[in-house]
Amino acid sequence: MKGGYGNGPNYRFRLINAFLKEASKTLNPKEILEVNSLKDIIKHGVPRQVYVFPLAENVREYLHGIDKKPVYFNYPFEELANYWRERYLLPRSMRNNQWVEWKKETIIKEWEEILER
Fold first, then answer.
1. Are 43 and 25 in contact (CB under 8 A)?
2. How far is CA 5 from CA 40, 59, 67, 76, in A?
3. Is the pLDDT of residue 3 over 80?
4. Is the Cβ–Cβ distance between 33 and 41 less than 8 Å?
5. Do residues 56 and 71 touch, judged by C-beta distance below 8 A?
């Protein structure tokens, strides 16, 4: 599977930016699109999210350099998965329901196209 640089959202934003720059030579995209700045067009507005879940009993001591090695919890996978589902997955699925429109066939087709690259 080809991934990495040049295949993600940032690539699309750069492509849109290049198009707008070129279009600006003959048109007024800001006027046409009714925006104050062309930069407003390429902002997705989704803040980066970071989730923290301590996996060691001595996480603070380890991060502060007091302990040299972390003492990991030994949670069963099912317990971790249930915690993630209840804490993050279900609340997010209620706030953003775009996943409802996903179609299995479309996802499979998109992955096949990605794997062919």
1. no
2. 23, 33, 37, 36
3. no
4. yes
5. yes
The three-state secondary structure class of 56 is strand
Max distance between CA atoms of the chain, in angstroms, equals: 63
As given in the structure block, the two tokens for residue 3 are: 């991934």
Residue 90 has pLDDT above 70, yes or no: yes
List of long-range contacts for 64-72, beta carbons under 8 Å, 24+ apart: none
What pTM was estimated for this model as a whole? 0.36
How far apart are the two ends of the chain, measured CA to CA in Å? Answer: 7
Structure tokens at 95: 């706030």
For the record, the structure tokens of 97 come out as 């329901």
Would you give the DSSP letter of residue 68?
Answer: S
User: Distance between CA 69 and CA 51 in Å, rounded?
Assistant: 22
pLDDT digits (tens, 9 = 90+) for 31-89: 888 888 877 777 767 777 777 778 899 999 999 999 999 999 998 999 989 999 999 99
pLDDT at 5: 55
